[in-house]
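Researcher: Structure prediction, please.
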Amino acid sequence: MKYFKYTVLLFIVYQFYSCGSPTETVVERPIDKLNIPLKDIVVFTASFQDSYDKLVFMDINNTENYVFVESDSAGLMGVAAFNSAKNKLLVTGSTWIQFEVGYPFYLYDLQDDMSRLVYGRDANNDIICKPGRVPVWFNDDSGFFIYGFKDFLYFKFEDWNYYKIPPSTQNPKIIAGLKIDNTIIAVENLSYVPVKKIYKSQSDSDFRISNYSLNGELIESFSNQYIQNGKLLTISYTQKNIEWSQSAQKFVLAELEEDKYNSKISITDYTGSYYRTFTDGSSRDYFPTWGPDGEKIFFIRDIGYEISKIMMIDVNQGTVQDFLNPADLGARSLENVEY
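Model: Predicted structure follows.
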């Protein structure tokens, strides 16, 4: 078997005193091409003992064919989302934005071979960053949606700017995906108390599914029995523990176990009338992502203190197997897998 291994130095440079400062400059840097077909790429972050995290682009059909992408600073936090064409990847940054909730995004462009910070402009033409939870791309890849600080937002690459989707709400959300008609499928945490800005414990949480039009109108909202009542692993700013597949017409989710630490990987349809689980909850399984054509699922499994590996599910066969161990790359841990 032919062995490929490349190391690419990715410079994502942004100098600022605070986001929105007129002194801020954003520098774009070229990146090398990958020797992996786009449709076969799975990407994740690898943690090492003596360096910053590295992005890893890997061939799902050949785990010996991979590319390390390094940063010259702690500028990469976690994988966010591929677009449908898989030629662009959004990555969450590691710099928490003051007075906001979340991290900014970087765009890794596999077509133009460039990396750049995703930012907008305010009325004074100063750079503004809009952080948020893991994004969901438009169906036509022309932009993406996020839930930011109290608001739904979308970003358009046409004019390179953020826009707010009314109405503003106080319930924190994560966008699990888009329905075929391009409406937003959001997960709302009804246990959020906006005045005190606190959460109930996971066991007391109450999540519901809501479907919004692109102008912010609520189309429908209901409880899915496999997502509500604390069964959905805590929503994170950098990890997505629920994801919708348009091809499979199902959610994959990390479902919390009774011990409030371990979790299992399950799938359910939109209303909760269908349900199937693939792991038994004896481990902490999380960050699931749909693979090719909804026939595979990748997820992260803890195997020790701050040590985790990547697992793979064959949906049709119902089998679960190792995809990659951190030792295979000389890494300490693997996180944030995305197909």
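Model: The CA atoms of residues 95 and 130 lie 12 Å apart.
Researcher: Thanks, that helps.
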